[in-house]
């Protein structure tokens, strides 16, 4: 239930933060007309992501293909999360340069709409992926409860965002949540790899037994997760150090 609650809150909060930041930038650039269409575009992306995820969940995938896709998707989320931690300033500068170029074009309405759809699609697909994995482990009741509590927590966070922003380093909180998201991604990568091995090797193979200590529940599983978490932790520490040293 906690995993479902956390990923729901994290993905919904990220979507709201992106929407708020993009709308604020557009208003400051005297393009409030574009900002008004952003929520609708993001909502369309969320609906498209939900439909795509539902179709993917209902499709009868081959077990090996399903395990491989799950591992690759989790790896992609881990890469995006780690990139946000290690090069936040570069991402911000590139995003602003791209936004400057888009809003200056006659087709700015289309570009902003495409941006909103892509953001909504990405966040909803990521959320559906994590909820699907949680459903397989915790069952439908715990997943639904965690999802509902996550939506409730998102509503409370949105209501308290303005007073919280002046008292709490929201970027620091968001980065800490990114670390937990990285850990969940690492666990899903290991799970996908384990399922791929089990589905690919012969029944009499000893490979699953040799890998068992490094898989979930094994003696070395926690140490393996900790070792793989070193890079995201170091990336966040380096970013924090560089930002504090320039103040």
TrEMBL record:
Give the top-rank taxon of the lineage listed in the UniProt record for this protein: Bacteria
Principal localization reads membrane
Question: Cellular component per GO?
Answer: high-affinity iron permease complex
InterPro entries according to UniProt: FTR1/Fip1/EfeU
Which terms does the record give in the GO molecular function aspect?
A: ferrous iron transmembrane transporter activity
> What's its membrane topology?
Multi-pass membrane protein
Alphabetical keyword list: Membrane, Transmembrane, Transmembrane helix
Cellular location(s): Membrane
The family line of this record is: Belongs to the oxidase-dependent Fe transporter (OFeT) (TC 9.A.10.1) family.
Q: Record's PANTHER family?
A: IRON TRANSPORTER FTH1, PLASMA MEMBRANE IRON PERMEASE
Q: What is this protein called?
A: Uncharacterized protein
Species in which this protein is naturally found? Piscinibacter gummiphilus
Native organism taxonomy: Bacteria, Pseudomonadati, Pseudomonadota, Betaproteobacteria, Burkholderiales
């Amino acid at each position: 239930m906690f995993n479902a609650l956390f990923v729901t809150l994290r993905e919904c909060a990220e979507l709201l933060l992106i929407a708020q930041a993009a709308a604020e930038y557009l208003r400051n650039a005297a393009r409030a007309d574009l900002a008004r269409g952003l929520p609708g575009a993001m909502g369309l992306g969320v609906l498209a992501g939900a439909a795509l995820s539902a179709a993917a969940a209902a499709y009868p995938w081959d077990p090996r293909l399903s395990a491989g896709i799950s591992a690759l998707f989790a790896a992609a989320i881990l890469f995006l999360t780690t990139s946000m931690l290690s090069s936040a300033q570069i991402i911000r500068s590139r995003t602003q340069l791209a936004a400057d170029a888009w809003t200056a074009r006659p087709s700015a309405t289309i570009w902003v709409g495409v941006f909103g759809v892509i953001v909504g699609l990405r966040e909803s697909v990521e959320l559906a992926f994590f909820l699907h994995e949680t459903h397989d482990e915790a069952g439908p009741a715990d997943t639904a409860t965690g999802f509902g509590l996550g939506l409730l927590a998102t509503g409370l966070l949105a209501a308290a965002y303005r007073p919280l922003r002046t008292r709490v380093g929201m970027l620091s909180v968001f980065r800490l949540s990114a670390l937990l998201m990285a850990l969940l991604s690492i666990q899903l990568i290991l799970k996908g790899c384990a399922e791929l091995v089990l589905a690919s090797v012969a029944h009499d193979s000893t490979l699953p037994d040799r890998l068992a200590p490094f898989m979930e529940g094994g003696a070395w599983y926690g140490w393996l997760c900790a070792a793989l978490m070193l890079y995201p932790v170091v990336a966040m520490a380096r970013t924090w150090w560089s930002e504090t040293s320039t103040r």
